[in-house]
Amino acid sequence: MEKKELLYEGKAKKVFATNDPECYIVSYKDDATAFNGLKKGTIVGKGVVNNQVSNYLMEELEKEGIPTHLVRELSERETLVKKVKIIPLEVIMRNIAAGSLAKRLGLEEGVRMASPVLEYCYKDDALGDPMVNEYHIRAMNIASKEELEKIAEYSFRINDYLTSRFAAIGITLVDFKIEFGRTSDGTVILADEISPDTCRFWDTATGNKLDKDRFRRDLGSVEEAYIEIRKRLMGI
Ligand code: TMP
Ligand code: ASP
């Protein structure tokens, strides 16, 4: 697969064109940001771990019947993916109160919600990714009713699968953020990544945080946390 021009550079990944008009190459960086880019740093080796972990999980999700952008891993940091137009929504699923939900609703971090909570944020850095509901999404033509139904259905199924997958390796899936895209024929598929950058993972036995909150909150041992997730999940 031939890597061509850089199409887009985000905070954690670069996207390149390829000689296949239906495929992109994503390249994962070690750059880390938080609080809408206000805090910047490097997590050494993060790009490699996130690429491997995300591909591993997407492969499993494909087997569960969730369509994803994954085509194949090309190298430690690079993956061939299906070309999509990202639907500009951060789709957040929450099982336990933490982060912005805990703050917004005055809940103590760690309180289990009676049922999973699905939230949407409009992906717009200049606006700080404001939370929106189905009515905003419809009214702004961000996604159709049918697309939103698919997104919600996939999100709950992904949550069910990942919750039990991580429970089996002693990790509590607190919450996570996913993104979806449309292929050229309009099919909605899971895109972006699922990694310690985009999930909250708590060690079930100790309560230790094994995700990007270690960077956001200056808790130290950030690299080690990412590697621990890969090790428990993939054995490497
Ligand atoms: P929050 O509690 O800060 O809203 O985060 C909810 C989940 O979404 C958490 O698992 C971290 C993830 N997340 C991202 O992946 N990207 C983001 O920009 C933000 C704010 C959160
Ligand atoms: N990635 C986001 C940013 O840089 C925030 C986060 O993950 O906390 O703003």
Quick recap of the structure?
By secondary structure, the chain is an alpha+beta fold. It is built from six helices and 14 strands.
- Span of the ends, CA to CA: 26 Å
In N-to-C order, the SSE pattern is EEEEEHEEEEHEEHHEEEHH
The residue fraction in helices comes out at 25-40%
What is the CATH class of the largest domain? Alpha Beta
Remind me, CATH topology of the largest domain?
Answer: D-amino Acid Aminotransferase, Chain A, domain 1
* Overall pLDDT metric: 98
Bound molecules: thymidine-5'-phosphate, aspartic acid
Percent in strands: 25-35%
For the largest beta-sheet, the strand count, sense and barrel status come to:
7 strands, antiparallel
What is the number of domains?
Answer: 2
Unreliable residue runs:
none
For CATH, the homologous superfamily of the largest domain is named as ATP-grasp fold, B domain
Helices, by number, come to 6
**What is the molecular shape?**
globular
Indicate the structural class.
alpha+beta
Backbone CA Rg: 17 Å
Give the second-level CATH assignment, the architecture of the largest domain. Answer: 2-Layer Sandwich
- Overall strand count: 14
Describe it.
With 236 residues, the protein is an alpha+beta fold. The chain folds into 2 domains: 3-82, 2-Layer Sandwich (Phosphorylase Kinase, domain 1); 85-234, ATP-grasp fold, B domain (D-amino Acid Aminotransferase, Chain A, domain 1). It has helices at 46-63, 99-105, 134-139, 145-167, 213-216, 222-234, and strands spanning 3-9, 13-18, 23-28, 31-34, 39-42, 70-73, 78-82, 85-86, 89-96, 112-122, 131-132, 171-182, 188-191, 199-203. Strands 8, 9, 10, 11, 12, 13 and 14 form a 7-stranded antiparallel β-sheet that branches. Helix 1 runs parallel beside helix 6 (222-234). The longest helix is centred in the middle third of the chain and has 23 residues, at 145-167. It is globular. The model has no long low-confidence stretch (mean pLDDT 98). The structure holds thymidine-5'-phosphate and aspartic acid (ASP). Thymidine-5'-phosphate (TMP) is lined by residues 92, 98-101, 175-177, 198-200.
